[in-house]
UniProtKB/TrEMBL annotation:
Listed Gene3D superfamilies: 3.30.1380.10
Protein's recorded name: D-alanyl-D-alanine dipeptidase
SUPFAM superfamilies recorded: Hedgehog/DD-peptidase
EC number: 3.4.13.22
Pfam families linked to this entry: Peptidase_M15
Highest taxon, organism lineage: Bacteria
Signal peptide interval: none
Co-factor remark: Binds 1 zinc ion per subunit.
Classification via CDD domains: D-Ala-D-Ala_dipeptidase_like (cd14843)
Coiled coil (UniProt feature): none
Family matches, as PANTHER family: D-ALANYL-D-ALANINE DIPEPTIDASE
Residues that coordinate or bind Zn(2+): H134, D141, H206
């Protein structure tokens, strides 16, 4: 169990709301739908009402300094069935990329692949006390686009399972391009944190607000604070 999963959830009952386009840029086609993730009637571009309010605030902060720039949403609400599908998909993908055949994995190969997958993906838990972050409507994967709608270079693609995904991966590089990746990541982080979000320690693109991870990270930063999560899994009924 990850440490944040011990945080108590006091569900507040806020609805999921659609993320408005073109106010925000939404990645299309949606990457998980493209690989067959089972959304049914649901859409990934939904967030809890309070989270959407804070996302609007983050974008206003961005546009004060960089007119025309927008937050681009890669993924937001994720049903638990989709979390399971994407964990399985990623496991197969990473096994294949290492030239390993799924049918012939040793126990230790299986364990090390799972360890890599779960460094970046949350466990698709059906337990209401330990929901996957995106299934609460309180987590979002984002990047930035400029005034021409062009993706801002962050130095690595969203969902890459490598150290390049760590938010500060380029912090100490003296290479000119690496410096600009770091600056862009800092710009994203700064507007999101100022608007009340927390950032996943291993992923430059994942931010949360009101879920267990957010409560845990908030208490890590303020050890005297007593914070609970207000969002549990939603839309599973
Ligand atoms: C891997 C990425 N898309 C992601 O969302 N990771 C978090 C931790 C999750 O699975 O909740
Ligand atoms: Zn995420």
């Amino acid at each position: 169990m990850k440490p944040y999963q011990h945080i108590a959830i006091v569900e507040c009952g806020e609805p999921l709301l659609p993320i408005p386009e073109p106010l925000f840029s939404l990645v299309s086609p949606h990457p998980y739908t493209t690989v067959g993730a089972p959304y049914g009637e649901k859409s990934p571009f939904y967030l809890r009402e309070g989270v959407l309010k804070h996302l609007i605030e983050a974008q206003a902060l961005l546009q004060k300094e960089f007119p025309g720039w927008r937050i681009q949403v890669f993924d937001a609400y994720r049903p638990i069935a989709v979390q399971q599908y994407m964990v399985d998909h990623t496991f197969r993908d990473v096994a294949q990329s290492k030239g390993l055949s799924l049918g012939r994995l040793t126990e230790s190969e299986r364990e090390s692949l799972l360890e890599l997958v779960y460094e970046f993906w949350a466990v698709p838990s059906l337990n209401p006390a330990t929901p996957p972050p995106h299934s609460t409507g309180g987590a979002i994967d984002v990047t930035l686009v400029d005034e021409f709608g062009q993706a801002v270079a962050m130095g690595s693609p969203i969902d890459e399972l490598s150290p390049r995904s760590y938010p500060d991966h380029f912090a100490t590089s003296i290479d000119f391009r690496d410096r600009s990746f770091h600056e862009h990541r800092q710009r994203l982080r700064s507007i999101m944190l100022t608007a009340g979000f927390q950032q996943h320690p291993n992923e430059w693109w994942h931010f949360c607000l009101g879920d267990q991870m957010w409560a845990w990270l908030t208490m890590q930063a303020n050890p005297d604070a007593k914070v609970t999560a207000r969002y549990g899994a939603v839309g599973e009924g």
